[in-house]
Write a structure and sequence with these properties.
Distance between the termini: 42 Å
Number of helices: 2
Largest sheet: none
Helix content: 40-55%
Strand content: under 5%
Radius of gyration: 16 Å
């Protein structure tokens, strides 16, 4: 299922497909789960780059390791 109309969006070429992104997120989540299992401890997932919230949300859904509970605070930092 195509989620966008590339003709309407003036996109010349898709560099990374949705399927490729999903596969990479799956691999990253598996690696995180493996590392946390081997090293122990708790996992805290922090989204720090503007525009990375969707990626971080997709990753958090794929990670099987329980995440630390937080208050869901949002921080705005500037220089």
């Amino acid at each position: 299922m195509e989620r966008y109309n590339k003709d309407a969006m003036d996109i010349e070429k898709v560099l990374v497909s949705e399927e490729q992104i999903t596969e990479l997120i799956d691999r990253i989540a598996e690696k995180i789960d493996q590392d946390v299992k081997e090293q122990g401890g708790e996992l805290l997932l922090v989204c720090v780059l503007k525009g990375s919230l969707i990626f971080t949300s997709d990753l958090a859904r794929k990670i099987k390791t329980p995440l630390q509970k937080t208050a869901g605070d949002n921080f705005l930092l500037s220089h």
